[in-house]
Design a protein that fits this description.
The protein is mainly α and 183 residues long. Helices cover 70% and strands 0% of the residues. The longest helix is centred in the N-terminal third of the chain and has 49 residues.
Length: 183
């Protein structure tokens, strides 16, 4: 009996190690998307200024780069929430389309079910408002002519806070093996 218990413990340790490695990979990609959003916003603003736009903010977030900005925002939220889910004991099998998939609200609900508690202001509101356009890939393959999105001036700080918060959880789990991609 002791031998089978040891085998189960080893299997669980490997699963946990695999989940931690997957969480690290997802967090790295999600945090990278946050950095990408900021860089794209900066480039879109510079382009709007160079083009002589009368409303730089309008041109930045509703102009030719807006689909890319919002696509990255959705994927950043998705990957960071999936990371939180794994770090708090979620099963990696639940990440796929039969459970979480690209559904931001399900990702948040599942992460909270396993113990994730975010201090990110209005996280649920962002997730609820981004859910449909992200889940239906409107910024990837096209969608309605007009989509109401949360203001990017509010979204970017929330994304950054979530990346830092989940990164801190990852740091606690990984210890010295953690190699942050952001601040």
């Amino acid at each position: 009996m002791g031998e089978s218990r040891d085998k189960r413990r080893k299997a669980n340790d490997m699963t946990n190690d695999a989940n931690v490695q997957l969480a690290d990979d997802l967090w790295t990609r999600g945090a990278g998307h946050v950095l990408g959003v900021q860089a794209l916003v900066d480039a879109a603003s510079e382009s709007a200024i160079a083009d002589g736009a009368s409303d730089v903010s309008q041109m930045t977030f509703n102009g030719r780069h807006s689909a890319s900005i919002h696509l990255l925002v959705g994927f950043a939220f998705e990957l960071l929430l999936k990371t939180a889910f794994l770090l708090h004991g979620g099963n990696s099998k639940d990440l796929g389309p039969s459970c979480i998939g690209h559904d931001l609200l399900t990702a948040l609900d599942k992460a909270e079910e396993v113990g994730f508690q975010s201090n990110c202001a209005n996280l649920r509101w962002f997730v609820e408002n981004l859910r449909e356009p992200h889940k239906k890939h409107w910024f990837r393959y096209g969608g309605p002519d007009s989509v109401t999105m949360p203001a990017i001036e509010l979204t970017l700080p929330a994304l950054d806070a979530l990346a830092r918060e989940v990164g801190a959880d990852l740091r606690r789990v990984m210890g010295d093996d953690f190699r942050p991609q952001t601040g």
